């Protein structure tokens, strides 16, 4: 009886540990934003307000080399099986790998993983590749396919129709402070030619008038 009670206690304790200290507890919960409400304001990944501003719907995360608890995100309310889901990355320097159901997909600079949903929620984790002794901070965004205009089935080519827009694209273009003065490489060009022609036209006319006056005298 004592052994049975002790075994139950140990199993209960292990279950408690598994549920309360599992790496999945550290995962972020993805909160979608309607694309019409995306922020169009440029902000850097290092800004403390990055995850509040959420440019183009993105969030910031960091992948640490050798970490046992990988950076991850849980996407809930996927709507069941067969819906397309994409994970967008804006990385910059470094390589980030997305782990999806045991399959690792790695991207440098930027990229998109587009796949189909399985179940009512999915978890994706991120780690950095070739980042020994360092970490990589990156933007990521989750987007779920939705039925539109009375559609009754999902578009099998949905992934191919998607275009990747990145937070970095919101950075304003630099305006030159000192605009150099244009140099006229054709001095005495057409304007001078016009002046010369006018001179030649006016002088003969004056001479003709003078000669006409003299002849009348």
Could you characterize what this model shows?
Strands 1, 2, 3, 4, 5, 6 and 7 form a 7-stranded mixed β-sheet that branches. This protein starts with a helix and ends with a helix. It contains 4 helices and 7 strands; from the N terminus they run αβαββββββαα. It has helices at residues 2-20, 50-53, 158-161, 190-216, and strands at residues 28-29, 59-64, 71-76, 84-100, 103-116, 121-128, 135-144. The protein has a domain at 26-32 and 53-146 and 154-168: Jelly Rolls (Sandwich). A hairpin with a 2-residue loop joins strand 4 (84-100) and strand 5. The protein is α+β, with helices and mostly antiparallel strands.
Which class of the domain at 26-32 and 53-146 and 154-168 in CATH terms?
A: Mainly Beta
Unreliable parts? 1-25, 191-215
Gap from first CA to last CA? 150 Å
Number of beta strands: 7
The backbone outline, from C-alpha atoms, is globular
**Mean pLDDT level:** 79
So what's the oligomer here? single chain
> What is the radius of gyration?
35 Å
Q: Supply the number of helical segments.
A: 4
Summarize the main sheet: 7 strands, mixed
Structural class: alpha+beta
Order of helices and strands: HEHEEEEEEHH
**Can you give the helix content as a percent range?**
10-25%
Query: Which CATH architecture of the domain at 26-32 and 53-146 and 154-168?
Result: Sandwich
Report the CATH topology name of the domain at 26-32 and 53-146 and 154-168. Answer: Jelly Rolls
Strand content: 25-35%
């Amino acid at each position: 009886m004592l052994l049975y009670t002790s075994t139950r206690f140990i199993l209960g304790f292990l279950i408690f540990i598994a549920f309360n200290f599992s790496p999945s507890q550290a995962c972020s919960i993805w909160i979608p934003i309607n694309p019409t409400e995306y922020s169009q304001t440029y902000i850097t990944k290092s800004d403390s307000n990055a995850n509040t501003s959420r440019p183009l719907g993105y969030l910031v995360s960091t992948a640490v080399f050798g970490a046992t608890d990988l950076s991850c995100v849980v996407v809930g309310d996927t709507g069941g099986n067969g819906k397309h889901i994409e994970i967008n990355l804006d990385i910059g320097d470094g390589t980030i790998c997305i782990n999806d159901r045991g399959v690792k997909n790695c991207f440098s600079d930027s990229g998109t993983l587009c796949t189909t949903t399985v179940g009512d929620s999915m978890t994706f984790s991120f780690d950095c590749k070739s980042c020994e002794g360092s970490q990589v901070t990156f933007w990521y965004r989750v987007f779920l396919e939705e039925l539109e205009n009375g559609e009754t089935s999902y578009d099998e080519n949905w992934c191919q129709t998607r275009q990747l827009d990145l937070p970095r694209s919101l950075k304003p273009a630099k305006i030159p402070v000192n605009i150099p003065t244009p140099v006229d490489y054709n001095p005495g060009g057409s304007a001078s030619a016009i002046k010369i022609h006018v001179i030649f036209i006016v002088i003969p006319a004056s001479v003709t008038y003078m000669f006409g006056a003299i002849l009348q005298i």
